[in-house]
Each structure stands twice: as structure tokens, then as C-alpha cells.
Write a structure and sequence with these properties.
six-stranded parallel beta barrel; alpha/beta
Length: 134
């Protein structure tokens, strides 16, 4: 039985992980490149979005403090530096801004400086990192 367990674990570990765009309904495996890269496209309907986002009116209410950057190369890591793309295929994930906080997967507050951006809710940060194992 122990050898079977080792064989199964070796098989699983030898598989290559394939990162794709993800949804909040996926299961977590390795850290997500999607929320790490921070290239965002705003869609026009909630069913098209990977994440539903609500913009709050105060920093302390936000899960994530976001700074909109003006260049794609500045949008890196998982620090809330978002670059809004003009096409969905250029984005790492798609968002839709909802009108009520209870509908949101994530609450954000937009800040005016890049050094102010970052996660305020670590539990939410970990919960939203969902790559797909292929």
C-alpha cells in the first residue's frame, strides 16, 4: 500500500502544471500567475468576469488597494498594480464592477501612488489565487 501511495504521489508531482486564466470556482494548486501579473480587462457583464469587484469609499474597507499604472511592464507581482488592457485576450484576468458589496469577490480602493498599493486582507489574497491543473 505504501508503494502505491508513493507511485501516485510521484505521478502527480511529475505532471507539469499548466497555468491558465482561472475563476473563483477552480481549486488551488500552485500560486496563480493570473493575479500575479495584474493585467486587467473590464468586461461589460458579470457572467463574463473572472472576478466581481466592488469599489469601496475608504481604504480600511478594501481587501486590496489598487493603483492604476500607465505601462504594462509596471503591472507585476501581486501588489495591486493594475494595468487595464484594451482587449480581453491581453489580460491575465477579467473583472466586472458590481453595484453592491455583497455581490463582490473582491473589494478594492484606488490609491494615487504605487507604493500605497497592496493587500489588506491576506485571507482574500490566498483565496483568490486559483490556477488550473491540466
Amino acid at each position: 500500500m505504501l508503494n502505491l501511495h508513493r507511485y501516485i504521489m510521484a505521478s502527480i508531482l511529475s505532471q507539469s502544471f499548466h497555468y491558465e486564466k482561472h475563476t473563483p470556482h477552480s481549486y488551488p494548486y500552485p500560486p496563480s500567475p493570473a493575479l500575479s501579473a495584474q493585467r486587467v480587462f473590464e468586461v461589460d457583464a458579470d457572467y463574463k468576469a473572472d472576478y466581481l469587484v466592488f469599489e469601496v469609499d475608504s481604504e480600511y474597507k478594501a481587501d486590496l488597494l489598487v493603483h492604476k499604472v500607465d505601462r504594462e511592464y509596471k503591472a507585476k507581482y501581486n501588489k495591486g498594480l493594475w494595468f487595464f488592457t484594451d482587449r480581453d485576450y491581453k489580460a491575465d484576468f477579467e473583472i466586472f464592477f458590481v453595484d453592491r458589496e455583497y455581490k463582490a469577490d473582491l473589494t478594492v480602493f484606488f490609491v494615487d501612488r504605487d507604493h500605497k498599493a497592496g493587500w489588506r486582507n491576506d485571507a482574500k489574497r490566498l483565496a483568490l489565487e486559483f490556477p488550473v491543473l491540466e
